[in-house]
Amino acid sequence: MKKFFGYSLLIIIFTISVWLYVSFNGTPWHRIVSASKMEEYIENKYDIEVVKEKSGYNFKMGTYVTEFTLKEDPTIKVHVEEGQNKNSPYVDYYAEALWTQQLKSEFSPLLEKQFKDETILFEPIYGIGSEYYSVGNIPHYSQVEHPFTIMIKFEREFTEQEKEKVSIKIYEIIKEIQNRELTNVELFISYESDSGKTFTTIIIPPDNISSIKSEKDIYPFIHTH
Prior knowledge:
The chain is α+β, with helices and mostly antiparallel strands and about 220 residues long.
C-alpha cells in the first residue's frame, strides 16, 4: 500500500514537473520544427541565407521564437517569432536589424572615439519594418520616418564638472547627424549614480537636432530626476 502511494506521488510530481517545464519552455520537438519553418520563411521572404543562433519559447504569448544571423554578415541578428493569427503566421524584424546595422556602421567610429568607456546602444522602433517592406526593397534607414535612438549610458553620477565636458562630446555627434542631413535620429544619454538616488537624462529629439549650434544649446535638455 505504501509502495502504491509512493509510486502515485512520484507520478504526480513527474507530471507536474513536465507540465511546468512545457508551460515555460515549450516542447523540444516543437522548437526544432518551428525553427526550421522560420528559417525557410525568412530566407524565402527576403532571398537571404541565415544561420540559426538559438531558439526559445515565449511563455507569455505561447509562441516559439528563433534568433538567426545573416550568413553573409553575422553581425546582423534577425529575430523571428510565431504570429498571433493565420494571416500572419510569423513576425520578423529583419528590416529593423538591417537599419540598426546601417546606423551603427555610420556612427560607431565617432561614438567609440568620444565615449569609449560607456555603453552605446542603437535602437529602432520594432514592428514598423512591415510598413516599409515591399518585395525586394527595404529602404535605407535614413529614408524611414520613424526615429532611431542612439543611447549612451554612464554608470556614474552627473556633476556640474561633467556638464561642459559631455556637452562638447554630444555636440560632435549632433554635428555628424546634421552633416548627414538626418531627420530621424534622436539622442538619449543617461547618468545613473551607483546609489541609484539620482538619474540624469539628456534627451534630444530629432526635431531639435537642427537647432543646436553649440554645446551650450544642449544645456536645456539636461534633466536630473
